[in-house]
Amino acid sequence: MNRFSFVRLAALAAAPVLLLTLAAAPPASHATVSTSAATAGADLSLTLTLAPYQGNPNTCGTATELEATTGDQVLLCYTLTNNGTTTLTHQSLEDSLDGTILAYEPITLAPGQTHRRVRTIVAVGDTQRTATWRGYAALPRYSYADTGASGFVDIAGTGTRIGFDAAPDLAPFTSAFPLRFYGRTSSALCVSNDGVVLFDDPACLSPQSGSTPDYGYAYNEPLPVTVGFGRVLVPTVIAPMWSDLDREPGGVYAQTLGTAPNRRLIVQWNDLGTSIASTTTARFQVIFQEGSDTIRFEYAATAFGNEADHGAFATIGLQGDPAGLYTQYSFREPSLAPGRSIVWTYTPEVGGTAAGNTVRVDAGIPEIAVAPAALSAVAGPGESVTRTLSIDNVGARDLTWNLGEAPGGTTAHFPRTPRHIAPPIGNAAEATPNSLASTFAGALRLPWLPGHRPLAPNGSLPFFGTSPIAGFLGFDGADPTGTFSIINPDVDTWYFGTQFIGNDFSKLYAIVYDSWTYPPGTYGTLDVATGAFTQLGHITGGDSWTWSGLTQDPLTGTVYAINSNDGLFAKLYTIDLASGRATKVGDITGPGLNPPYSIHTLAISPGGLMYGIDLYGQMFVAIDKLTGQARPIETLGLQLAGFQDLEFDQQTGVLYYSAAYVNSSGVTVGELRRMDPLSGLSTPIGSYPPTGGFPGTQVGTIALAKPTVGCAAPGEVPWLSATPTSGSIAAGAPGQPVTVTFDGAGLAPGRYEASICVHSTDPRKPDVAVPVSFVVSDAVLYDQSVADTSLRAFNNTVVAPVVVTGMSSEGADDFVVTAAEGWRVSGFNFTAYSVSGTFPSHVNLRVHADDGSGHPGEEIVCLAPRVPAFVLDQPANQIGVWLDAPCVLDAGTYWVVWSFADVDVSSPVLGLWGQTTVQHHQPAVWRNPGGQLSAACMAWSTFAQCPDQFDPSARDFGFSVYGRVFDVCEDTLFADGFETTSGACRAAPRD
Questions:
Q1: What is the rounded distance in angstroms from the CA atom of residue 880 to the CA atom of residue 584?
Q2: 459 against 286, higher pLDDT
Q3: Nearest-CA neighbor of 861 among 823, 884, 901, 889?
Q4: pTM for this structure?
């Protein structure tokens, strides 16, 4: 296949760079408290006022305090007044929260005139701000004289050589005395081999750091310059001969001459040729004078013997700020001659400064808090137990909640007031009354979910992704930088739509965007272990071959994707992955989405609300999944530089954002961020490391391998009911309890799971899923559990950090099966403790035969790795572990061996097994095979043999065994085909 589409992709990836974005805003809102405000200087005054946005983005309000709702847009007005007698020609404005608003803006203010600047900002929490205005009658500037005598002093033999190990030919240099430039003072220079010095730049970073080749400042441009991919501002520039110079045959030197307070710093480029063939070399200098803003350029030799002679390929000049402070001597003109001296003389600014008043935005939202995060209960067959779920409002606005359908439907996330988006810079079971099956939608098993939820890969946030640069990759979202791992770098296919489907984390569904191997629109799966692609078919029914944004609705299982022409004018489709057939939902369009726009990523919240990103408009967008209609939420505040992706954690509701953008140093960043769905504001978590010779890896798709809980129970819930099922909580009012009833009537012994879903008007967490676990228990066959005890043993299978995995330990205690028929063991409960109040989620459990000498034998009768651990609130200090299949035991002595699974000891989530001073049967044993806790107890040892770990009074562990005796008589079919008569019993067969 040809890669004709590469051109389109490259254009799309680069196009957003041309449309920079103002950091800005969401909608408008509530009641205002009006007050007058004015803070005046002697000649200038600056007044800040507020108003809710109500459709006109140019409204200048009168309030200094405003009550709003978080996520609303607020109009912030700066009123600048010239009270003096001098006309001001340029204006600068610095906001205390948002930084530079105006920089040397050519706005003329005659005496008595006023200028207003209105911004749309986002109300996020309670904030206060002020601002500072600088008005200029004349900007600070440098003028030059080039007719004086040469002052070149050759330091090549006496100065210190500045070394450049490799491209990008940049080296930091610290002056022995403070240097002055444009009225600023600094000793930190960044010296480039390419005839330029960057002032006050201690980091000395290349504008395209890490690229191959890393060109640094080899490519000169006219002043004012904004070097770097994406045209991002760079530090101040001092350019005596900025062009692409070689490091040979000479070098760059620096030397301080004279004595304080009259020292001079000379930086000399000595005998350097150009990157094209040179027959001669150049020698030139920059000279700084102590205590002075005056700078000299000195030229001893300016010819290279080629077309670059005398500055014909160079930039010569000074730049303090590209917004308005720069003077260019020449650009690509042969303006230099040997013996020439250019003396730059500084003239300070003429103007004044005014400080503004303080304005406050009081913004709040209702915030739901649901406790506990999970519910569990144990009851005997036919028994009923209750638990309490507490719903609180910890926010600053009234909250309504319910256990029914989410309020607002599929457009609940649409902005509730008009938006002003700043343009880019530059242009089944029968339900009983009150049962959850009747009170919230989809209470039956979701048909698209498997019957058993698989376990996600290890890691708190296991992400997998694809990158045009790095291929197929994975990382932990808690630490993307430190855990970034390329699984398969040889993926020659570009995917811009990937998703785990149906809680199957062994493979990632993907649609081909471009490839040497597969035609666009091919779909299949990526093996998470190898990255190998298995082709399933070709998506049909779309308007074009361009597919992206694959995602699945957690409520319905519906799979969605975006189809577009060359990345523009996106259309929403549903995808049948069994047949590859696409069905159009509608165009993704609506008020505020102005052509051209490019929406190429989708994400759906646990409550079923769809979001996307418009690359060209550089904004966060709410989408109606039933129609495709969309509304802008807010600009992203980043200068996007390629494809992006969004992914919800369906268990927590957190929205993750894989961003590619250009930072303020001109460096391309690939980064995982956490995004607020209400405001579109995002905060960085960690960057993706450089790969493939690029400074930052662009991860175009991400998918989180965590089971979907969603807002419906994954199983039938006739055994679960709650009352009340709705309510309203005023801000500051007490929370409301919900009584949850677990009814074991008609249920066979076993473990049951569901999810109570609390919907509310909290815009950040509209849906909170509370996992519910219910165990219908067999009888207690054996009990040596204990109440609260201070005797506790470390009992954890440690998996991280690697250096301390030798801390893993496990305990064992014995019990006796007394019934001749044997036992069917369905579970255990253990007296257990946590160092943090939160238990590890899973347990590794084994049942061993007794070895006859007071220890667990080699024979493992039953094995249950990583089974869930349920914290029991009654009785206290107990966790329950129920097996997926019964453990069948003949009469005899056995040992239960367990530890909390997959524990990271760098976190406080550790578990311990409670001990008792009473001995039952044989004394309990414990071991630490790695020896980091107790070198004396690396093999099974009694507590007395481990005096460095245990109190000498401890004898046994606390635990109980659940199950039933094999004494059930059932009709039995003998080999002759005749059933036995009543009363003829035989032992049930072992499972």
A1: 49
A2: 286
A3: 889
A4: 0.68
